[in-house]
C-alpha cells in the first residue's frame, strides 16, 4: 500500500512523474525534465567569484587583498569558508521558500551545486574533511518550522559526497534573538554560549575534520560561535569543537547582502542576468 512505501527508496523518476520537481528560483515545474533548476533560472543566480577572502570566502575587490575587513578584525576559529551564491532577490526568495513554505526539494539543487564545487577542491589540504555538521537550530524553532534547513542540506550533500552527516555533534542550548538587525559585535554577544558540543558523540565517531554547513553567511558570527566551543573530546589545547587535531571549514550556500565586500552590487546583479 502507498502508506507503507519508503519514499527515500522510491525511484526518482517515478517521484518526478507523481510530483514534478519545482524550480528553486521561479517555483514552476522544471523544464526540461530531469534537471534540478530551469537553465534560464540558473543564469539569474549570482555565483560567488574570485577574488575571495582567503579565510571566509566572501568576495573582495582585488586579487591583492588576502582577507576581508571582517576577517582582519575578528579572529576565526575555522580554517576556511566557501559559499555558492551572492545574495540577490532570487536567492532571498528561494531561501525564504525553503524555510517558511517547506520547499525542501529546492535544497537538492543547492546540495548538488555544493558537492560539485567541493569536488573541485578535494585535493587541497584545507578542504580535507571526513564529516558534515549542520548548524543547529533551537528545538523550539525546529518544532515550529518542522525541520532544520541546514541539516536537510547537509544530509543531501552527504548523499552526494558519500560522507557521514553528524547533527548529533552540535546542538543549540539558547534560543537567541534573530540576528538580521544586529551589528557584528551584537551578533557575537547574542550567540555567546548558544551552542554546545556532544563530546561523547564526537569521540565515538572517530571523525577528525568537519565541514560546518549553514544556509547563509553574513558576518561569520554563527560560524565562529560553532567552532569556538571547548570540549573535552578534543585533546588539543585551546579552542574548538568538532575536530580532532586538525581544522574545520564551513560552507553556507548563500552570502547575505551585508556580507559582500568590495564590489558594486548592481553590477554583479546585471552580470548574473
Describe the structure.
This protein is globular. It has eleven helices and seven strands. The strands form two sheets. Strands 1, 2, 3, 6 and 7 form a five-stranded parallel β-sheet that branches. The chain has a two-stranded antiparallel sheet with strand order 4-5. 34% of the residues lie in helices and 10% in strands. The protein is an alpha/beta fold and 273 residues long. It has two domains: 31 residues, no CATH class; 227 residues, no CATH class.
The number of distinct β-strands equals: 7
Structural class: alpha/beta
Weakly predicted, low-confidence segments: 1-7, 231-247, 260-273
Shape: globular
The number of distinct structural domains comes to: 2
Order of helices and strands: HHHEEHHEHHEHEHEHEH
Distance N to C terminus: 47 Å
Binned strand content? 5-15%
Radius of gyration: 19 Å
The major sheet is characterized as: 5 strands, parallel
Helix content: 25-40%
- In DSSP terms (H or I, runs of 4 or more residues), the helix count works out at 11
The whole-number mean of residue pLDDT values reads 79
